[in-house]
Each structure stands twice: as C-alpha cells, then as structure tokens.
C-alpha cells in the first residue's frame, strides 16, 4: 500500500547535517511487524534506535521516539510548526488543513468555535444518542454470531454520530467513508488528492447553504466562525469543514478497532471490564489505559529555524515526526508499558490526543463513543474472539488503523 507513495518521492541523499549513525530506514506506511501489532512494531524502533533518528523514507524526515521529546515538540510550535503535518507533505498548492495546520496565536481563534461546540456539556447532551446508536447496531449484529467489526460497527458508530452532529444525511455515509479511507490511506498522492477533491465537491453545496441559512448544528458553527470580528472566508470554511469531517470519521473508528482486537485476544481483560461495567470511575480509567496502549493518529511538524534539540542539529524546513503512540509505550515515562493494567494510577500517561495547543478538541466525544461501545457491546456480547482461520488486517500511516477484524461469538 505504502510502497507506491514512497516510489513517488525517491529517497533523498542523506543531508550533510544528518550524521550517518542517526540514519534508520523507517517507513511510516510499512512498519515491519505491524500486521501483528502496530504499536509494538513502532516500539521496536523506539527500543533499538537512537532517541531521535532520520529516515530517508517519504521525502526524508526525523523521528522522535521518547515521551519527553514527543511532548516537548508537541508543546513548542515556535520551533516545531504545524504548517505541514503529513508525510510526505501534501503538494504546496493544497490549502492548509484548518485549524490543524495553523500555529498559535492564529490557531486559537479558529479552534475556539470547534472547542466550544464539543465541550463536555454539549457531549453530555449527545450521550443518549451515542448509546442508542451503539445499542441499535449491536442488537442487529448479535443474532448473526459474527461480523467484521470494522465495517459493521467501528466505522458506523462514529459516522452516524458525526452526521447527526453536523446535520447531514445518514444515507451519505457509504460514500463519505470511501472518500475518507482514500484520503487517509490512499496508495498514491493522486488517490489522496482525488479523495480531498471528492470531499470538497460533496461539502460545497452544504457549506454554501449553511453560510446562507445557519442552523445550530456543528457545521453551521464552523463555517460561520468569527475570526477577529469577521466571518471566515468561503475557502477557509471549506478547509475547516473537510478537516472536521476527516477527524470525525476515521480516528475514532481506528481506536475502536484496536480496542476490539485487543479484547478479542485477551479474555481476562474482557472479563474484568464485564464485571465492572457500571463502575464509572473504573471504566474511565480502563479507557485511558486502552488508549495508552493503542494510539492511532500521527502528525508531523516542520522545523522553523536551525536549532539544536537534545544534541541533534536540525535545519529549518526539516520535517520531524513525534509519534503520539510511542509516548505511552516509553518505559522512561510509564512503568511496565506493555502490561495493560486497568487499575493503573490516574492520570494514565499518554499522548493519544496530543499535547498543548493542538490537543484534539474531539477527545471528549471520542471517549464517550468508546465508553458506549464497551458498555453496550460487553453487556450483549461478553465473549467474542477473532474468527478462527481469519486474519485481521492492520495498517500504519498518518492514522494507524484496523482495516478488517472478523469476530465470532
């Protein structure tokens, strides 16, 4: 899948400022061992390579592997900019993803309406709808005795909740899911750009209508955002709406897939959850622990000026990747990080939703969707496993994920 993307950008010659001993071949789209355990595949590089290394893959970029450095990079937009967050970088003619590819202080003004629209009190009002949607899906699957968890549940729950939140037709979900998959995991830059164009074509009439006749839905809020006393332009509104759509559809589905994959293979952990589904504090802690072990999203940064960071010389324009998932797998930050312990002291250390100004504004809703899955699924289907003879399909990239997870019960 990812070899085609790499082939589009021939591996660069090692830059003069990169020491030979820090060169490691690491392709974010093709991590050895990821077909068994994505997070452990990443961790193998953390354990065997320099804390910060350079790879020639995907245009050439640095990788920071340790929690201390990942957090420092995420919290320092002055030196590590968000202006390009994908690997390889999208072509310069592509508009920035708003507000993700904006830096403070401009970023705050664009992020504010999204944050307010997803405050805990707003998500609390959605909880019944999230639970009802989960129950409806599970009740439909239960008599079958089997399903592909990703296609039949993990992708459906988030998109139904999201489409209701932005007041778009649920019937549009199949086409949007296909476009999102191509945009996030497309095999070539052409496929990715075509998917972005498809999303833009879909959103154009909706954004136009909500700017002319705003409602109280999330889409109306973001496409009419007030920035320094003026409504954002149409192009910015389109970019904002596209980013929110991608974030609302793919990342939660990926995390749900990882968690279901883990529970299908670990009956003792599954039973611990089943025994305490009504213990809210326990369940909240368990969710944080599952998130810590199963990070999904990645965002790269651009080095803004020549600088020395942890003994490594970085040049302006260098790309650097601080993988969110490696934060929670670092034994320097987390005791016995490979052990999933639902009683781990709170707060459970992880960076699944990022750190600092760009912490994911949808984190509250994501946690609520995970809780709905755990409670409603385990009440109805407490014992399940990976279908004998079938193999889950796992993928790495800017968003790691589970593409297929055949389960039986």
UniProtKB/TrEMBL annotation:
Asked if the keyword RNA-binding belongs to this entry, the reply reads: no
Ranges that cross the membrane: 237-263
- What positions belong to coiled-coil segments? none
Give one Pfam hit by family name. p450
Q: What are the protein's GO molecular function terms? A: heme binding; iron ion binding; monooxygenase activity; oxidoreductase activity, acting on paired donors, with incorporation or reduction of molecular oxygen
UniProt entry tagged with the keyword Lyase:
no
The record's section on InterPro entries has: Cyt_P450, Cyt_P450_B, Cyt_P450_CS, Cyt_P450_sf
**UniProtKB keywords:** Heme, Iron, Membrane, Metal-binding, Monooxygenase, Oxidoreductase, Transmembrane, Transmembrane helix
| Entry's family note | Belongs to the cytochrome P450 family.
Protein name (record): Cytochrome
| Source organism (scientific name) | Nitrospirillum viridazoti CBAmc
């Amino acid at each position: 899948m990812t070899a085609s993307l790499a082939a589009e950008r021939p591996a660069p010659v090692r830059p003069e400022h990169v020491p030979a001993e820090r060169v490691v071949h690491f392709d974010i789209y093709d991590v050895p061992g990821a077909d068994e355990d994505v997070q452990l595949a990443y961790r193998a590089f953390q354990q065997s390579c320099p804390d910060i290394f350079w790879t020639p893959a995907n245009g050439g970029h640095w990788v920071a592997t340790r929690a201390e450095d990942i957090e420092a990079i995420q919290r320092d937009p002055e030196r590590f900019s968000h202006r390009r967050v994908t690997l390889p970088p999208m072509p310069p003619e592509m508009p920035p993803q708003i507000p993700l590819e904006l830096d403070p202080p401009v970023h705050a003004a664009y992020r504010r309406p999204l944050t307010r629209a997803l405050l805990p009190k707003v998500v609390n009002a959605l909880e019944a709808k999230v639970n009802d949607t989960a129950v409806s899906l599970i009740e439909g699957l239960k008599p079958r005795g089997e399903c592909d968890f990703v296609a039949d549940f993990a992708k459906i729950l988030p998109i139904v909740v999201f489409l209701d939140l932005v007041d778009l037709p649920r019937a549009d979900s199949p086409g949007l899911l296909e476009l999102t998959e191509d945009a996030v995991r497309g095999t070539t830059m052409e496929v990715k750009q075509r998917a972005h164009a498809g999303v833009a074509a879909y959103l154009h009439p909706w954004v136009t209508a909500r700017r002319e006749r705003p409602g109280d839905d999330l889409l109306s809020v973001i496409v009419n955002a007030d920035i320094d006393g003026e409504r954002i332009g149409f192009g910015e509104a389109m970019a904002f709406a596209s980013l929110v759509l991608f974030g609302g559809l793919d990342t939660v589905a990926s995390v749900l897939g990882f968690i279901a994959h883990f529970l299908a293979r670990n009956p003792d952990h599954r039973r611990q959850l089943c025994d305490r589904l009504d213990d809210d504090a326990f369940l909240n802690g368990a969710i944080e622990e599952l998130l810590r072990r199963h990070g999904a999203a990645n965002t790269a940064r651009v080095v803004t000026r020549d600088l020395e960071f942890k003994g490594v010389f970085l040049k302006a324009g260098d790309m650097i990747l601080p993988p969110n998932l490696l934060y929670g797998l670092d034994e320097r930050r987390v005791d016995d990080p490979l052990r999933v312990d639902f009683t781990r002291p709170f707060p459970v250390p992880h960076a699944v939703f990022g750190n600092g100004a760009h912490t994911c504004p949808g984190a509250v809703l994501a946690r609520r969707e995970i809780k709905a899955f755990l409670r409603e699924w385990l009440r109805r289907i407490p014992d399940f496993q990976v279908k004998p003879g079938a193999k889950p399909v796992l993928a790495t990239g800017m968003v790691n994920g589970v593409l297929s997870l055949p389960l039986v019960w």
